[in-house]
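Cast an eye over this sequence plus tokens and explain the fold to me:
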Amino acid sequence: MPYKKLPVLEVDGKPVAQADAVARYLARKYDLMGRNERDALICDVLVDTLEDLEQGE
């Protein structure tokens, strides 16, 4: 398990363990990033805001 952290996603037989990278990868793969670059920006802002809120606890 890379970095001894969860979540871990296996891509092409290799583990990937950074939660934000995994979320963005899956969003792109399953066309969840919106219709354009602005929509993708808003998705990134929401993910980063959640991360900031988690760190503030």
Strands lie at 9-11, 14-16. The CA atoms of residues 16 and 37 lie 25 Å apart. The chain has one domain: 2-55.
